[in-house]
Amino acid sequence: MGLPMAGFAARQSGCTGVHDDLYAKALLLANGRSTVVLLCLDILWIDQLLTKAIRNAITDETGIPGDNIMICTSHNHSGPDLDDPECSDWVPTFQDQVVGTVIDAWQSKTEALVGVGSTNVHGIGVNRRGKNIVDTSVGVIKVERGDGYPDAVVVNYTCHAVVLGPDNLLITADYPGYAQRGIETALLKKETVALFTNGAAGDINTGHSADACGIGAFTPGRTYERAEELGTRLADAVLTVLPDIGTRDDIELGSVRVDWTADYRTDMESEEEIIARITHLEEFLASKHGEHDEEWTQASIELMYKEEILENVKEANAAEFWRRTTEVQAIRIGDAVLVALPGEVFVQLGLAIKEASSFPFTFIAGYANDNLGYIPTAEAFAEGGYEVATARFAKETGAKLVHAAGQCLQSLA
Length: 413
Fold this sequence. Notes:
- The chain is of the alpha/beta class.
- The chain folds into two domains: about 325 residues, no CATH class; about 55 residues, no CATH class.
- Helices cover about 35% and strands about 25% of the residues.
- The chain has a four-stranded mixed β-sheet with strand order 5-7-8-10. A four-stranded mixed β-sheet has the order 12-13-14-16, covered by helices on one side.
- The longest helix has 25 residues.
- The mean pLDDT is about 95.
C-alpha cells in the first residue's frame, strides 16, 4: 500500500487499497513444430528492458525463443507504476511472478483444441478526439480440451482501460478485469481462464476528455458500476459468439519480430525554453489562489503538456542520433495473427494493418513489448491536441510502424 499508481499525473497519492486483484496470465501453445507464448498483464505498459529480461528468463528455463514470446498489457490506469523509483523494490517480484506464470504453463501442457472467431460490440469505445472512427471488433481465441468447454479464452478489444479516473486510489483491472471475470464466472464449471489484449487504442477511451482527465477535473460516470457495465457488455459479446467457434487439434503456429527505428521529433522546444515556460505557468497558477476559472484551466492544461514534453526532450537528447530502435512482432495462431505494437497507436493505423492483412483474422495487440507513447496518424499532427502535443516521435512514425507490421504479416503468410 502507498506505492504510486500509473496512468494519471493528477493523482494525489499512492494506492490506498485493493478493489480487485491484478493478474499475469499466460497462454502457451505448441504443435511439435513451434511454440508461442502470449502473456497478458493488468498493467499500464511495459518497456524494452523489462520485456527483454522476461523473455531471457523464460528462454533460460524453457528454451522457447524470445521472438516467440509476446508480452501484452491492458493499459490499465489503476495499477502500480513500474517506472516510478518507489516501485523498484517490487519490480523483481513482479518479474518473477510473470516468468513463473509461463513456466507453470510450460510444465502443465496438455492436449488441446484451438479455434478463432470474432464479433462486434458497441457502446464501449469512443474516439476522444471527436472522430467517427472506432474499432468495434472483438477478437476471440478459444482453447479447449475436447469436451466442448473452453480451457482458455483470449479477448482482443480496442479501448483505453480508464473508466476509473485519477480520483480512484484503489488497485483495479478496470473494465477488462470485469470482462475477464464475467467470462470466467459464466464458464466456472471448467475453470476457464480469460485473457485480455488491448488494441490500437491511442485515441479511443470510454468517453471523456484527455485534457480534463489530465488536470484531475471531475468527469461524471467514472465509477466501478460503469466499469462493471462495460466489462459485462464485452463479456456477453464474447460468450455469445464462443459456441459458434469451431476448434481443431492441429493448427499452424508461428512468430516473427521486426526491429525498426523511430525518429524523435525535431520540432520540440529546448529544455531551457520548456523549463522557463513551466516556471511561468506555475507562478501564474499560484497567483490564482485556488480560483479555478477558464484561465486556470487553460494554464493547467498547458502545464501538463509542458511537463510531459520536457521528459520527451530529455529522452530525445539522451538518445544516439535522436533515434530509438523498437520492434513489431506478430504471432500466428491458426487462422489468426496477433500483431504487437509498441505504444499508444491511433485506431486508424490499427485498422490499416488489419485491412492489409491476408489472414482471415487479424488482431492488434497495442501496448505490447515496448512503450513509444502516442503514435498518431500523420494527419493528426496538423490538428494538435493532447496526444499529438505529447507524442515523442515524428509524424512519419505511424507509417513506419504500419510498414513494419506489414513485413511481419508477409513473413508469416
